[in-house]
């Protein structure tokens, strides 16, 4: 990582790394990075229980009036999500090892390593 990318927030570093992984055709890293970015986006989503639906005639009208603000995650929240993604891959890799699927376990460990590499940049 360059000095410039080390100063970026974790989410921005992951997005930059995804672009690099795709250019290098590194499917393992790209899959892990896409998954982590998706998990971050999902964590920001509005809880469906907070959304109140009513009658159509009482609905607000106009561009963007039905939009709900997404949750704002702190840098530590994002780091915790990425660490959980990496830990999950390591756990599942152990299960694959016990089932004799070393090829899939190795792939999951490589994905976990790709995620952990961005965490250690902090």
Rounded mean pLDDT is 85
Q: How far apart lie the N and C ends?
A: 12 Å
User: Any idea of the CATH topology of one domain?
Assistant: Hypothetical Protein Yqey, Chain: A, domain1
Helix content: 55-70%
Name of the CATH architecture of one domain:
Orthogonal Bundle
Radius of gyration (CA) equals 19 Å
In CATH's first tier, which class of one domain applies?
A: Mainly Alpha
Q: Per DSSP, what share of the residues sits in E-state strands of 2 or more residues?
A: under 5%
Sheet/helix structural class:
mainly alpha
Largest sheet: none
Supply the CATH superfamily name of one domain: Uncharacterised protein YqeY/AIM41, N-terminal domain
Based on CA inertia axes, which overall geometry fits?
elongated
What letter string, H or E per element, gives the SSE order?
Answer: HHHHH
Q: Report the total helices.
A: 5
Account of the 3D structure:
This protein is mainly alpha-helical. It has a domain at 7-43 and 72-119: Hypothetical Protein Yqey, Chain: A, domain1. Helix content is 64%, strand content 0%. The chain has five helices and no strands. The protein has helices at residues 3-6, 10-23, 27-44, 75-98, 102-119. The longest helix is centred in the last third of the chain and has 24 residues, at 75-98. It starts with a helix and ends with a helix. The mean pLDDT is 85.
């Amino acid at each position: 990582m360059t000095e410039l990318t080390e100063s970026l927030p974790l989410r921005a570093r992951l997005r930059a790394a995804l672009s690099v992984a795709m250019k290098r055709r590194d499917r393992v890293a790209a899959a892990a990075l896409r998954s982590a970015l998706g998990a971050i986006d999902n964590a920001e989503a509005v809880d469906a229980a907070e959304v109140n639906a009513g009658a159509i005639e009482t609905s607000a009208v106009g561009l963007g009036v039905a939009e709900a603000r997404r949750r704002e995650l702190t840098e530590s929240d994002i780091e915790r999500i990425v660490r959980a993604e990496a830990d999950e891959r390591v756990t599942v890799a152990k299960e694959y090892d016990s089932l004799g699927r070393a090829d899939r376990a190795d792939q999951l460990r490589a994905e976990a390593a790709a995620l952990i590499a961005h965490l250690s940049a902090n």
